[in-house]
Amino acid sequence: MVIARPLTLVRRGIAGYTTPHVPVDIPLIAAAGVAVIVALLVGWTAIGSGDYGQWLMVSRGFGGLSTPAYRDLSDVPPMVPVAISVLHGWLGDPILALHATGFLIVGGMGAALYAAGLAIDGRSVTGLVAVVLGLLVSDQYLGLLAFGGLLQAAAIVFMTLAVAAFIRAFRSPRTQRRWWAVGCAALFLTCVTHVPTATIALPVCVAAAGISVLPPTRAAVMARLRSAIPLLFGFAVIGAYWAVAVAPASVTYVTNPASLAYRGPDRLVELLIAYPPTVLIIAVGFIALAVWVVRPIVGRHLPPLRDARTILLAWVAASWGAFAVSALGGASTDYPRFGPLLVIPLVVVVAAALTQLASAVGRRSAHRLNADHGLVGVALAIVVLAPFSIANYQTQAQGYRLPDDVSLAAAASWADSRVIPGKTILAPVREAKWVEGLTGRSALFASQVRYAFRPVEWDRSLAAGTLLRGDAGLVNETFNLTLNDGVPSADFEQPRALLIAANHGGEYVDLLRLVPASSLVLAGDGNTLVSLPALAPAGFDRAATSASVATMTTWVGVRAGQTVRYSEGVDLAAGSASFGLHLRATSQLPLGGLRAELKAQSGTAILNVELADQSAIVTFARFGRTEPRLRIDLPNGTITANDSGSLFLATTGSDLSVTVTDLTAGGASASLRLLDPRAVVDDYGVGAVILHRDPAYEDRRDRLELLGFRVAHDDGPYVVMVRAGSGRPATP
What we know:
23 helices; elongated; alpha+beta; 49% helix
């Protein structure tokens, strides 16, 4: 009885107690769920792009670790590298730190899109729709994470947050200064995250902040200006930083000689229209803006300047305007990187338009559709779109995967521990960037001009290409000529073949190769006397001045008791759009002429050959925007062609001299030089090589062995070669 009475009182108390109503923001929860799921997808997906390795390398400098000596990291915005470095310290694993960085950036983008959508009309469902459109419908933002564009991806997060803050400042006069501070802080973070994005973000935020300052009446102008003094001070600080740090750093991003031909505006358009959901967002976004602008004009008055949608209009106009100015002005930059910057503001526009349309339909519907119905529609859209979006992202990421990331990390660690400090590691481009990120050592790798924006990288790329592909290289502004197919000799290797890469739109493109087996000396009766592969190497001469470079290989053999001498010479002058190829034969025997074959390089197709008197204009399959074209002149000889991509050169004398001229050259990324593999190894301090076991592996291994490298370790598909004298002394 003593216990029963208190229990009865408790039951009565509970029965009479009513819990306070706690509002649940279902769209917010749904938006957070979408953002977290997509962020987990990005964080879980395997990464392999060299850009991830590059940012890992940069982060080492902020963590007090070694970085490649040739890299100047002062021009890299610090925000993301610092974050990677901090996460590396916390997690203890560099790869895990990169995955965590991707997770945080995508999660941050979800939060930024939600904030921007919510700021427009105060509706949480608008933020949810913006998150779905930005992360699941359009492919542009996640595409940045697929190839490792961490800096731009993070900068877009901060820019979107800045715009959202200035919209909130416009809509919330009582807390206006607080939102101005948030907007300025986010804009500054954009500036210290990615230079090109900051260049667009500054005018966008100036317009947004200016609209938020506008007073409701003219009489309040001075009072509003006085209240905006902190905002003006914030922009003054940001403007000063932009002028000192951002503007100078942006110069290198608009001077790449190959960008317009390969990464120009047309390439951006191709990428935007390749994915229909993105096309739909762009179309609906511009239609919504047009309706908002035109409707007041039809009513004979201008659209209201003090309107949150005006800020969206300014955002879209600044982004698309920057693209238009760059394209029309011929800025040589990486235009596909404009994609996310153009699409994200339209994502917010479409989200606001869809929410407004849904509300209008709900009010006019006989069934009185409510917010719950709208959420059901959004949920169904997520279910339908998510598999396609996830598959699209994973397909893009898969294209950048390494053959075996674990084996590469092991090979890089082994090479770093066994090679003298300060020595460089030669490797394929993607693997080399990871080597730099994992070890901090300098790597030498061949990269295409359009993907590099620093002259030092172009020079190092030419050097690496010579080591990996040939026995010597002749380079000027127009041609990159690689002598290969070497025969071991007392003087390294003596090359028999010639690979012709021509400057096409600023990029060196492999077009033709001289086929050694088809280099023939004819007897007086017109039959083959000897072919080049049947001759023995007798000398390899090189000559270089400030005006020209040249090579000459000599070959000898005996036929019918007489010596036959054959030479193959190449000469290239500074600034010239042509080079000379000279084949000569001498013997006491009567000679009936020379024959040679120029064949389209593997992966290249000849579309057309226009034959004229002792010359031919050769058109190749399209690279970039246009088709490469070469003119081949053969005085005192004939040129014929077949359908399999070969040009046959013939002369009846003992001298076959050809002039090859580039007809589609673009801007220059190199100057005159003669590249000798032995000198390259010494000049760049190459102490080790990491090779991938591909079809070219054995040829590269054999050539590098002649330079003093020996196979010392292998791990999975990777082989490590160490040069004599570059290994660390063995420890007992």
